[in-house]
Amino acid sequence: MARLPSPRQPWLHTYLPLGISVLAALGAIIAAAIAWYKALADGTTSSISLWVLVVFLSILAKEALSIYRVFLDMRRQRRIESAHELHAAGQVLREILAARFSDQVAQEPDDTLRATAFRVCIYRVVPSHRETRSADLERVTAYCVGEGGDPGEAGKRISLACGVVGLAYRTGVAQVAERQKESLEQFWDEMVQTWGFSQEEARSLNRTRWSYLAVPIKDESGRVDTVVFLDSQVKDCLTDDVIESIIFPACEAIGLVIEQRYGHGH
Question: Which is it for the CA torsion 212, 6, 172, 216, positive or negative?
Fold first, then answer.
C-alpha cells in the first residue's frame, strides 16, 4: 500500500538471518573440533589429524564468509528501509520556515518553544489494525524540530478521517487550517467537532499549535500514499505566498526523494 518504509522494523526481520548463520557456524565449528579431538585421543596418525585440521579451518572460513554475506545483506536492507533521507528533507523545510519567521520565533519565551515553533513530519498510508477501518496514516518520521525540541516518536497512527492530514489524503488536495479557539476547552472541542478526533485524541494533541498544513504526495498512478504535515505555534504564518514559494517546492522535492529512494511501492 505504501512506498515508504515502516518506522519500526520487527526484531526477527532484522536479526534472524544473522542469528541462523551464527548458530550454523558454531555448530560446524564444534563438530569439527570434536572430530579433531577424537582423532588425537584415539592416537590417529598425524596425517589424519592434519586432514581434520584442514577440514576444520575450511568449515570455519566458509561459515565466516556466510556470516559476512548475511551482514552485508542486512546493511543493504537497512539502507533501503531507512527513513533518514525523509527526515533530512523535512528538517530542511523546517529550518527554512524558522528562518523566514525568525522575528516571531524569537519572541517565544523559552528555548523549547523556539525549537518547536515549526514542526514537520511525514505520514504514509498503511492497513489499519482496527476492524472498524481499512487503513490508517502512520507517522514515518519523528517531528523535525530545532535543537532542544521534543521530536516525539515515529510510528504514531491516526485515522484517515482525522485532521488536515486525513482531509488531504481523502481529497488529494493540500489543506491549510488556522486554529480558531483561544481556550484549551474550546481547542479540544474544535479538534473533535471540526477535525474528527475523539476526546481522548484531542486532549493528547499539542495545545501550542495555531497553524496547520498537510500536502498529499501521489504515486505515479495518481494515488495518495504519503502526506507531508506541518504545524506551527506562529499564528497566521501559512500565507499563500509562503505556501506557494516555500512549502510546495519543498514537498515536490520530498516527492522526488520518495520516488528515487523507495521506488513505486507495491
Answer: positive
From the CB of residue 184, how many other CB atoms can be counted at a distance below 10 Å?
10
Read off the DSSP letter of residue 35. H
Query: What's the distance, Cα to Cα, between the start and end of the chain in Å?
Result: 6
3-state DSSP assignment of residue 194: coil
3-state secondary structure (DSSP) of residue 182: coil
- Which amino acid belongs to residue 52? V
Q: How far is CA 140 from the centre of its chain?
A: 3
Could you tell me the pTM of the whole model? 0.71
Write out the chain's pLDDT in tens, 266 residues.
456 555 555 544 555 555 666 666 666 667 666 766 666 666 654 555 566 666 666 766 766 776 666 665 655 555 445 678 888 999 999 999 999 999 999 988 888 889 999 999 999 988 887 777 778 999 999 999 999 899 988 889 999 999 999 999 999 999 999 999 889 999 999 999 999 999 999 999 999 999 999 999 998 888 998 999 999 999 999 999 999 999 999 999 999 988 887 765 44
Rounded to whole angstroms, the Cα distance separating 36 from 51 reads: 9
**CA–CA separation, 215 and 200 (whole Å):** 25
The cell for 83 is 527513513
CA distance linking residue 198 with residue 116, whole number of Å? 25
CA–CA distance, 154 with 25 (Å, rounded to integer) = 36
Compute the distance between CA of residue 184 and CA of residue 191 in angstroms, rounded to an integer.
Answer: 11
